[in-house]
Every structure is written in C-alpha cells, then in structure tokens.
Design a protein that fits this description.
Blueprint: E1 4-11, E2 21-24, H1 27-30, E3 38-45, H2 51-70, E4 79-81, E5 90-93, E6 99-105, H3 111-114, E7 134-136, E8 139-141, E9 143-150, E10 154-161, H4 168-184, H5 206-214, E11 231-238, E12 256-264, H6 266-293
Keywords: Acyltransferase, Transferase
InterPro entries: CAT-like_dom_sf, Plant_metabolite_acyltrans
Pfam families: Transferase
Amino acid sequence: MANNVIKTSRVGPATSLVDPLILPLTFFDLVWLPDKPTNRVIFYKLTESSSDSFYSVILPKLEQSLSLVLTHFLPLSGHVKWDPQDPKPYIAVFPQDSVSLTVAEITDADFSRVSGKGLRHQTELHPLVSELPVSSSDSASAFTLQITLFPKQGFCIGLTINHLVMDGKTVVKFLKSWAHICKYGTTPQDLDLPMLLDRKVINILPELESDFFKRTPYLSGNARGDDGDTVPFTFVADFRDRLDPPVPVNYFGNCVYLSASLETKPRRFWRRWICKCCQDSKRFGEGLIHEELSQYGSCTRKE
C-alpha cells in the first residue's frame, strides 16, 4: 500500500496564546510514561465525491474546524518536555505552537477491506498515521494528524497521540467536538467545553507518584500466540467518578489507571476471562483496583 504524501502543514489554534502554558503531569499521566504513542484511524466512505471536491471543499473545512477545536484543546498543539534538571516531564504550550497535519493519497488499496472489521496485519495501517515529531532528546510533540484520501472510495483521519497528554475519553471528546464544529460551524453545547486544565482536581496522594518512579511498569510479550505461548492482557479503569471529590467531566488529561496485567495461554485466558466477566465483572475489576491502591489511604471514595 503506497502512500503518496501531498503536503505537510501546521495548524494552530484559532485563538493564540499570549503567555506560555505549562501543565504539570499528574500520577494518571505518568503511568503512561513507558508507553509508545497510541494511534487511532477513523474511516469515512466517500464514493460519489471527486478528488477535486475533496481538496477544494472537504479538506479546507477539516483544516478550518481543526483550528477552531484546538482552541478548546490547547495542550494538543504543545510538547511534552523533560528538562534534565526537572524531576518529571510536563506539557508546554507556547504562543506559536501548532499541530502537524499530513495530507496523503493511497491509490492501490481496497478501501472496503482496509476499513472493514476483518483481521489484517498491523503494517497495513502504518501508512495511515504519521510519526510523532521529536524535536530534541527532551521534547516531543503531543499530537499529530494525517488525512489520507482513497480516490473515489473514501478517506480516513489518523491520529498519533502521546499518551502522557490524554486518555481515550479525552480523545473521544476531542473527536466529537471537531466533528460538530466541522458540520455545524458552532461550538457544541453538550460536551462541556472549554476543557478544564486545572491539575488540582486530581486528588491523589504524593506517595503514589513517588512510588511509580520506583517501579515503572513495563509490559512485554506477544499480542497473539499459539496455544503454547503466553499472551499479555491489560485493562484500565476510569477514575473520574472514583476520586474524592469526583473529577469534572470536562477535565483534560488522563484519569485512568492500569488495573491488571494478566499473562496466560490464549485459549485458557479467553475462557477464564469471558466466564469471569459474565459472572461478576464489576467485583472482579474494582477488587483489583482497590487491592492495588488500598495501601495509599483515602484517595478514593467509599461507596
């Protein structure tokens, strides 16, 4: 699947900052420090529109609405920095910061198969996302985008996200906001914008953060394997409603925690996992969470 890059540009927030914005990372951000950037690809079927129409109408509208939505999600245009003298990384957004946007075309692929629900090798999706720019050894972009056109078939939007910056719930809120602004040209009223950047709403004891740096989790193993191999499986829990007080719904950042990492043989794992979820999923998940965090006292609400 050959990827022909048409252009690479930068899109900044419609309203520029006057002063730099510095955001410290919380415990829920730092747990993702060892992870690689995450990717998402969203496909849009578009068989009746010509390439000229895409480049003259659809793409400019996407770029304009992206600039508008970034005003509500300012950290996405910034960088994750870790100066040698600082104990931990932080997010820095400067007045002229922007998001890298790559526009590409792929003409030798079956859009229906690539965007379908069937199994495919992960390398088939690599041309649909951009690498996260790294400007130096202590600074990396928070976010990058790629829009790829499959002429007379459709297009897709690929996101590459530094997980230190936000979790999946924040990503979904960003995508919904972008889609609304692109379609209607107005700020959505039901998504609680602008996003809250205040880190003080994360009520976590300092001991959690210091303990994290002592034993940073690394996961390894095969994503799939024969029945003789072990397969790692990790799931997370959303803590927005579990902290005391609860975290506001418009909080920007991470608020999920690695609840468990299991390694087992594939067939045995899926059999045990499905049975366990069906029998007592809530107790299973929350029990593991509280067992992990109980040593740190009353940072979570009691039911």
